[in-house]
# Entry
Amino acid sequence: MNTLFDALPKGVFIFLYADDIILVAIGKTKARTRTKLQAAVNAVGRWAEATDFNTAPEKCAIAHCCNSHHVAFDRPVKLAGATIPFRKEPKILEIKVDRRMTFTSHFQQIKKDCESRKRLVRTISSRHTKCNRKTALNVSQALIHSKIFYGLELTCRNWEGLATTLAPVYHGAVRFASNLLPSTPAEAACMEAGILPCRWAIAINVVKRALSFLEKTTGGECQILDIAKHIYSEFTNTQLPAIASMRRVRNRPWNKRCPNLDTKLTRIVKKDDPHSATQPKFLHLVNRKYQNHHKIFTDGSKLEEEVGIGIHGICEGLALRLPPECSVFSAEAAAIAVAIRRKSESIPTVIFSDSLSVILALETGESKHPYIQEIEDTCDILTTICWVPGHCGIKGNETADHLASIGRRTRSMVTREVPVNDITKSFKQKASNHFIDHWTNLRGHPQKIKGSLQRWEDRESRIEQKVLSRLRVGHTRITHAHTISRVNPPLCSTCNSRLTVEHILVNCPVYEDDLSYNDEDMSLNKSEGEGRRNDQQATIGGPPKNDNHQTLQANPMVITFTVLFYTFSLTVLRSLRDW
# Structure
């Protein structure tokens, strides 16, 4: 199939998907465009005859994409004597393409197709005694998210329209999985479930697919790259870093030698061994196997947005910096790669590293990490990579660790290229922070309850979890039925205030005695009070005891809400069953 590219005339673009061919002809007038397209079709016909391929004109279609009126060519385009039909919205790999490339019809069709899938999620999440929200969310991701994100390489041209049109489908499935009301605010439903809203999820997938394209090509340009750069800049306020390309897409060839690896110390050194027992074992290994080898120690370090590597045993030591998006794994692998580059080629060398994950990745030969592939390609037979326990008082390892700490703050960089997995992970975190900043600026009831995307543990009972989820988002039948019936908001019959979940559980004087009892019960010293808060948050499925979330720890409503939920377990829970 690759010979087809050479058969086409100049000025015509071709896209090849298995045995499907897309020809793109661009011109200032219809007549000139039609002439280019006919020449390209004739070239494809001649190539098919020469290579014994069959062409099917009845399965082909022509589409006119521009901002002017949708008018067919004056003269037909023919293939093998048959006229190729002209269509307003042809399908390319099941994606409808309109003349303005907005994909409006395609988005509407996806929205229609997902309605039955949403009903399946609703059935799974509403007909069981036990809570199975995790399963419902996984089913939603498999059935609905896959449908929405299909073909993003093409539909990302109008990714804002995609997010606007299909957000109701995406968020509706989240509401069904959490047993929330259909009128629950979308962002509150996603935050309570611990997932990103539709717009942020689409942005992450667009960037992820653009990066996947970049790491497999060199110097290629396509539309998804420009859109990904714009999205990355919008969500992070920084530019998309340079991408480290893979050396190969497949696993290590069977006839390529695996680097010399030594993991004997993993079977000798135990996890709880003291330093006094670990050092003699290491020295015994060195004196027995590597007495005549040149010894190099490597290490990688990351602290917040600073990444560095340290190499001891080359000159007076090397301390270099990596881009802030790199992970500790990448830093450890980069340190070994640099050590192999700088070592002497004629002397047997042993490189000691405390990263067992890097050594295991080298052993399997299945890693697509560019630094790992560089080590596999450059490591010669005279070089051995040996695992050594870290932070056990081994002099060379401690020196390399110190150099790595210095490397985090130095100006000299190993490379500016970052592996795709590291950029993807970094962007996911920054996109989550972008949404959390947006969330905290809303300043409503749900913001007082939860301020992070961490998933809280669900209750075992589906009814209890349904009530709890609706109380968290502050959107219940008794407080928000007016949004459906279009009447005035309800007022509290006791104090004539706006009826809200916060008012019922915290401020209403009807429960003043219970509130006083809870205040007395919680009037402990500061250390005991903090421990009680953590215990109560863990009880309702909140963060663990050591969670450092300021919003939850500083807000007394969370504590009162927790105590009241269980104080009224026999009365309020029954009355709230239909919330």
